[in-house]
């Protein structure tokens, strides 16, 4: 096609896409140019022939039904209030959470043997004391969104939910008091009267290892009873106070690094004791103890808690925890030996 | 008949209204099927393409934005599916235009009194369309869809407007030649 006007406008003209003015100009041009008119007539004829012989074949009715089946399925998912469950991001998070849960409850700890151990005898209801103070998870200081998130996961299971701690007083431990060493926790390290609960969340191997390390690194002024030595005598109150008051002020880093009472907590707590950071250690040991379920079936766990309290110098609570371990078949023998090695409780 | 635009129906389907989708399906199913049939020349594959096109519409409904015209969106999917199928097909030597599928078509000298039947005419046109290169065929068939503008064809095929016009001109010339060889449209001029 040599005519530039037809090259650009003829198809629009034939398809009726030209404006009124352009269409009039094109008609005038076609009247004047025979070649262009012939070309236009040929194109129009082809278009007419093809349009006149339009396929009358329709798609099979089953196609409509099949497509609508898919549409209804998709529509019902979209309407469903649970539709968000099927979104990939949510599914990934849920699967991740389940995997983590399974890991912590079945792989990390050795649950199979523990779960088979059931307490035959009923535990007595735990005594409650109005004077008891404990550190609430809400006192944990966090300084970053990530740590806040970790802390939130801890707060999701408040200590009160275990029925061990009264809900009336969970006031935060003033940081200043802790730093100055005037905290009631420091003044009354044995104020934690609640018997610890043992469970099946103990990372025994690590605790044993940490406890062993601690025994070697502990300061010489720490009484033998604190180390849990069988031949140690009862620790005098004076020594115990000296031990706790010797604790240096904890750093912000220590609080920030505080984690939910996972199995490592107890080991970390012991480690802190070895560093003389007793208040922090107590908090962690207490939080760990509170994390145990109401009906612990793990004798080894009870024993570990008992050792922890012994290391803290709380012989009464250590004895109580060991007595619980004694009732369980798997830990009875070890608990008996532990009880025999305990120093007498100071009057 | 629902007067809502395709875009409004799609937005309604986005919110879970399957009735809206059914209206869209009824509105476009036949045209998409015929477009695919003429592009591919195979009713089974045309059915597959139609089904897959609408399934993709369903799948992408959540991300659909009304500023994208629904019909262009729909035909772009159908066109891409057709091109995929054509690319997978083994290359067949194109039969000489003179003896291509002459069965059912009156031979030789079809005078005005020797009209081919409507069915034969459709077969001849289908063959003529299939003889076109894919880019010319898709341009021609898309323009044949009701109310489809040249600019829409350019958008769907991803070509610029002048390229589309050029393809259409070549397609019309080839069609005219092919049909004339089959004795259809003898009255068509040869002045191009």
Short description:
The complex is a heterodimer of chains A (347) and B (192). Chain A has 347 residues and is mainly α.
Walk me through what this model shows:
The complex is a heterodimer of chains A (347) and B (192). Chain A is 57% helix and 0% strand. Chain A has two domains: 31 residues, no CATH class; 243 residues, no CATH class. Chain A has 347 residues and is an all-alpha fold. Chain A is rod-shaped, with a radius of gyration of 39 Å. Chain B is mainly α. Helices cover 63% and strands 0% of the residues of chain B. The chains are: A mainly alpha (347), B mainly alpha (192). At the A-B interface, helix 1, helix 3 and helix 4 of A face helix 2, helix 3, helix 5 and helix 8 of B.
- Biggest chain-to-chain interface with counts: A-B, 40 and 53 residues
How does the helix and strand content of chain B classify structurally? Answer: mainly alpha
Q: What name is given to the CATH topology of the largest domain in chain B? A: Rna Polymerase Sigma Factor, Chain: A
Largest beta sheet of chain A, briefly? Answer: none
Alpha plus pi helix count of chain A: 17
Broad shape of chain B:
globular
Spans of at least 5 consecutive residues with low confidence of chain A: 111-144, 147-174, 183-234, 243-263
Distance between the termini of chain B: 44 Å
Provide the domain count of chain B.
2
CATH architecture of the largest domain in chain B: Orthogonal Bundle
Biggest beta sheet attributes of chain B: none
Give the topology string of chain B: H per helix, E per strand: HHHHHHHH
What's the CATH class label of the largest domain in chain B?
Answer: Mainly Alpha
Label this structure with key terms:
heterodimer, A: 347 residues, mainly alpha, 2 domains, 57% helix, B: 192 residues, Rna Polymerase Sigma Factor, Chain: A, Arc Repressor Mutant, subunit A, 0% strand, globular
């Amino acid at each position: 096609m040599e005519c530039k006007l037809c090259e650009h406008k003829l198809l629009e003209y034939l398809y009726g896409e030209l404006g009124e003015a352009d269409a009039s100009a094109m008609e005038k041009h076609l009247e004047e140019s025979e070649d262009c008119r012939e070309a236009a007539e040929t194109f129009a004829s082809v278009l007419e022939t093809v349009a006149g012989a339009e396929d009358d074949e329709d798609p099979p009715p089953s196609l409509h039904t099949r497509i609508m089946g898919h549409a209804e399925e998709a529509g019902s998912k979209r309407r469903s209030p649970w539709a968000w469950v099927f979104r990939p991001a949510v599914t990934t998070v849920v699967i991740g959470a389940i995997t983590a849960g399974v890991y912590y409850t079945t792989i990390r700890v050795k649950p199979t043997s523990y779960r088979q151990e059931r307490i035959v005898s009923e535990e007595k209801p735990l005594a409650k004391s109005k004077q008891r103070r404990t550190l609430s998870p809400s006192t944990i200081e966090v300084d970053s969104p990530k740590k806040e998130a970790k802390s939130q996961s801890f707060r999701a299971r408040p200590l009160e939910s275990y029925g061990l701690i009264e809900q009336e007083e969970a006031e935060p431990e003033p940081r200043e008091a802790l730093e100055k060493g005037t905290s009631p926790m420091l003044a009354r390290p044995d104020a934690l009267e609640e018997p610890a609960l043992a469970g099946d969340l103990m990372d025994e191997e690590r605790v044993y290892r940490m406890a062993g390390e601690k025994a070697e690194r502990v300061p010489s002024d720490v009484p033998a009873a604190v180390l849990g030595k069988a031949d140690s005598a009862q620790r005098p109150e004076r020594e115990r106070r000296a031990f706790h008051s010797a604790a240096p002020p904890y750093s912000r880093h220590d609080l920030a690094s505080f984690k939910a009472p996972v199995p490592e907590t107890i080991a970390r707590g012991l480690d802190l004791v070895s560093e003389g950071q007793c208040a922090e250690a107590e908090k962690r040991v207490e939080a760990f103890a509170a994390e145990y379920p109401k009906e612990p079936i793990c004798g080894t766990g009870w024993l570990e808690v008992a050792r922890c309290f012994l290391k803290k110098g709380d012989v009464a609570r250590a004895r109580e925890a060991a007595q619980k371990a004694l009732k369980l078949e798997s830990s009875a023998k070890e608990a008996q030996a532990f009880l025999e090695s305990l120093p007498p409780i100071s009057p | 008949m629902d007067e809502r635009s395709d875009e409004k129906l799609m937005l309604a389907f986005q919110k879970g209204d399957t009735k809206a989708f059914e209206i869209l399906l009824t509105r476009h199913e036949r045209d998409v099927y015929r477009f695919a049939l003429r592009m591919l020349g195979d009713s089974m594959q045309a059915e597959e393409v139609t089904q897959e096109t609408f399934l993709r519409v369903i799948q992408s409904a959540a991300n659909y934005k009304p500023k994208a015209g629904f019909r262009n969106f729909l035909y772009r999917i159908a066109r891409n599916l057709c091109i995929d199928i054509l690319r997978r097909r083994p290359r067949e030597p194109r039969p000489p235009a003179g003896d291509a599928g002459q069965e059912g078509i009156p031979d030789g000298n079809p005078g005005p009194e020797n009209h081919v039947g409507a069915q034969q005419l459709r077969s001849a046109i289908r063959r003529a369309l299939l003889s076109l290169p894919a880019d010319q065929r898709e341009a021609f068939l898309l323009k044949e869809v009701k109310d489809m503008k040249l600019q829409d064809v350019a958008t769907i095929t991803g070509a610029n407007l002048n390229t589309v016009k050029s393809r259409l001109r070549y397609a019309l010339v080839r069609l005219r030649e092919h049909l004339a060889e089959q004795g259809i449209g003898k009255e068509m001029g040869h002045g191009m």
